[in-house]
Amino acid sequence: MITLRRSLLVVVGMLVTGVTVAYAQVPDAPPAEIPYLGNRTGVWIVAQLHILFAAFILGAPIFAVVSEWLGYKNQDPRYDRLAKEITKVTVILYSMTALTGGLFIFVLLATYPDFTTWFIRHFFLIFAVIYPLLFIAETIILYTYFYSWDALKGEKKGRHIALGVLLNIVGTTTLFVIDGPTSFMNSPAKAAEMPLIEYIQTAGLWDKVANYSWMPMNLHRLVGNVTFGGFIAGLIAAYMYMGSKSDEERAYYDWMGFVGNLIGVGALLLLPFMGYLFAYELCDYDASICPYMMADQLSMFFEMQGAMVGLIFLGSNYYIWLSMKRIQGVEQVRISGLVMLTVILMPAVMGFAWWKFPVPDPISLIFLGLLIVLPPLLSKLPGLRFTVSSFTMIKVGFLMIVVADAIWLTPHAFIATGAMEGEELPSWASELALMPAKNAAAFTLVYLTIVNYILYNRAIKRGTIIWGKIDFASQFVLIFLAFSVIWTMGLMGAVRSLTRKYFHVYNLVYDFTPESFTPTLRESGVWITVITLIFYAVVSFAIIVTLRAGDSKAHVAEASPVPAGAK
Amino acid sequence: MLKSIVKKGMIGVLVGVILVIVARLTHFPPMFQAMFFIYAILGAVVFILLDAPSMNRIEGGKAVVALVLFYVVLSGVYIAGASLWPQYDPEVEKGKIKKILKAKRAKTNLGKQEELIARAKALAERAKSITKQLNALGAGAQAASQGAPEVAFTMGAASGDLVALGKEQWDLQECYNCHKLFGIGGKKRGPKLDNIGNLMTPEELYEKILYPKRWMAEGFEKQYKKGKMPDKYRDLMEDSEVQALVAFLSTLRDTSVTTPKPIKMKLK
Q: ipTM above 0.85?
């Protein structure tokens, strides 16, 4: 026995020595080179796909739990079905999130090994312990949430909803945790009068996580995820509506498309302000980021963003228009003409208010408050009780969407390569390029969208909705909205990464590779579109596989017109 | 229906033409005029869609084909949209980045490796050249004296015109984004610096660049409080680069431009 042990020891020792010697003789492999695409584009595609899937699996459960709760509260089985179907798709896409996440880390290690190992070491506790534990917890809770749906019914529904809430808490925590290293790359924590390199060596994990852009990124992504979840729900509804064989199915998916769009638009209204806060904090961190974003290489990216936001608002409001057209009795719905005047005057009035009393001066908010509150109050006075039809109001609203977006899109100048002077606004119109005008434009878009929903609510209270009879074009609108939102996310994801310029970690870790330059908007547009199409293909497949093949027995008859008050 | 489309289209074009004329008369450049015209056409398209008749249901294969076509159109529109905006030429930025990163890269292991390889190559070339000369001598021919082969690596920036190097740093670090100089650049984030050479010594300029909070420009209290001047240059710039920039700034003595008085700040 002793001889055997000694022999084994000798053998193991020889093996270890041999392996060590062999390993020591193996030279380091150079970083991988992704053919045709290049390393930067390869990482871009994988990272963006991962974020898109992650945004859905984090945003959809928020939407699903709220829907499930509404179904429970109102005893409306449509909400429960909606929540379950969204969760079904989420479960499938969860594996895609994990797959792209794993692929992301492998691609990073292969293409940027030095930086990636440095980065992992600095956030080891997050990458090796906290994040995996949260991921495991989320997996367990998500699968339990989905597979216990039918078991936890009736009196046990409250427990199921509580499980959904827990799922969202874990999901949101996961988002906040991973945003730590992500935001660190854009705005690494710093201390006054101390070199950045020195500070980072001594900073604790919390100091690195709680950097300038961490919380703004958290808020922006959280709201963005809900927006995304809503529009993807609309996409699901559009596909299923198109493939429906019966009136009951069409009625249900028509309703689902409306609810998805409502959630998406509702969260969308907050998104410009979250994005503004995010950009503001980045500029606060380092003022030179601002001109790079707004006045230099990325300025045209923001022009494209303005165009996308305009198209998304046009699409959302066009969907409301089509929704209203199928309500019987909508012609009788009217609104105060003063509200219409407010919509028309808002860009000018609020532009002036914010120019004269810049944020955070509260006087500008008084202007805004008066603009919102006065029209419905004044409309009760004799002589001011003139009204306009809902269709007139919506049409004027569309005109103002174009005007507001035109203001949003107007830059100070179009600066081409290398030139400091380009095509500039004439000096008398220079205020159009400044933040007061942009804020006024954003508020106008938000306000008139809210007005349109108020009109819609009035219409459904007084009239009769015929679910399942919406203009078929509305399904293409839902698909257009989902596509545009995904494309915009891809665009802004590129912008966030590019604000690091020629750094892996801004001002701290240089990127010495030849690809550390700003790509053209044209090239970026191509890759963003490719990523969007890949994502679309996977999501479309997931929807068709999970929902078309699924059991569609327990449906509520929805084809008959729903009278007023029945929601 | 067709009549309505044509009518709305004509109104859109008319409004667009009016906007272009007004824009031209009020000195908007051509790009803005084009955008105003596009907005008018977009408005016409929106109003055409608002009054469009309901679309009939399509199903089965037709729906799939319609969807695929829709995606193709959307993709094309968005790529075209991204392509139509003015584009930056990355080659210009690459040149700048190369200059900024040169010294940094040389300090890294990779940079040192590359320097060693370059030296080895240079030595190998030299050895070849000497061998050639010896062979030529051996054949009785006078070897033409060849100049020393070009050293593949540089010793760093030439010690020539420090002020010119400083001007280069001004461009590379993009100081013009916040400070107007010679009438170019700036967005009131920072003071005009045309006369800064008369107001600050080189030592004070050096301190301001590396520790922005130690000096404030009169009238720029808001920007100072917000920390608008980045404090990253002590991490990013080599000492020689800062010295060059200081040398350049010290030459700026145009008294016709009002450069605000610098105020030394007491830090807590």
A: yes
